[in-house]
Task: structure prediction
Amino acid sequence: RRPPDSSPDFRHRLAFAVEADRLKTVSRGTTLFDGSRRERSGEHSWHVALMALVLAPHADVPADVARAVRMLLVHDIVEIDAGDNPIHGSFDAAEVERAERKAADRLYGMLPERAGAALRALWDEFEAARTADALWGKAIDRVQPVLANLAAGGGSWRDYPVDMAKMEGRVGAKVKKGAPEIWNALLPDIRAWFAVNRP
Amino acid sequence: RRPPDSSPDFRHRLAFAVEADRLKTVSRGTTLFDGSRRERSGEHSWHVALMALVLAPHADVPADVARAVRMLLVHDIVEIDAGDNPIHGSFDAAEVERAERKAADRLYGMLPERAGAALRALWDEFEAARTADALWGKAIDRVQPVLANLAAGGGSWRDYPVDMAKMEGRVGAKVKKGAPEIWNALLPDIRAWFAVNRP
Ligand SMILES: [Ca+2]
Result:
């Protein structure tokens, strides 16, 4: 009989793990907190998963942290094919959505069927942003770049025509759905930066 | 009364999340799978957490995947202070252990007491490598650089005086404790590289 190590199930999982490495080369709009270089999507995924874990008591609705962490580990995998689309950048939302769905089909489709469907369902749930776990994950994903920009003295805010109203509408609204306490805590610092730099 | 957002608990958790960003600047001995640059410890932590999730059915002893993922998310945080010590490099093991324990005291100590103690206990469990969850996490942490080196045509193996016997002793022994199936699956490719490059 064939040794277990050559089972097609294992080879598919391994191929996905190898392909995932490419997320480390996808550059994001934001920088590291020290401003030294652009953040990559792989390390961003680690940071938001860790934040979802350590900030969990501050979720608005108690979330299943393990599920939120799993969502965040896979939430940007589509960027391997579709790239990162900065929140304050200009892009065709329908086109991005099409590209990301196609990427999800290919990438989650590398896994054995049930495993791929489970991770794809997690990603769909994250994107739909309606369950407590997805709202918590989304809030962390949106607030992490805010922390980066505050730490870096502006960071990616300097690269885009973003003002306090856009921040409230595009970022604050989403953070507040999952983590209003965190948004409210950061608001004085955010307002202070925009008052000085985008009066 | 004080607003909840200024509670010391939240500020400590947030400070830890901000400090954690520095792990993205710690360079490892290994490269990305495409060989283009050194891997950083932050992105490595994401990759091993994801691998622990997608390869879980191939753990030797069934592991609590959520716990193994949490361990891997925090397993390298000590490197913010202590740096990375490549497995095939030469270093004083006792000195490294001392530096890492001091780093763990400081970094996990930034969190509220119970949260910090919980993550510190997870890290201690990972380092002790005796529970099923830790053995699974360790196996993944050890095998990920092997995948990187195989993908990169040698990678960090070229930088150190490592041969097949050292691979078996330092890497294989640890991978086999948690994931013998994975080690056995990779063994033909590993042997082939060393047969050609370190005959
Ligand atoms: Ca590691």
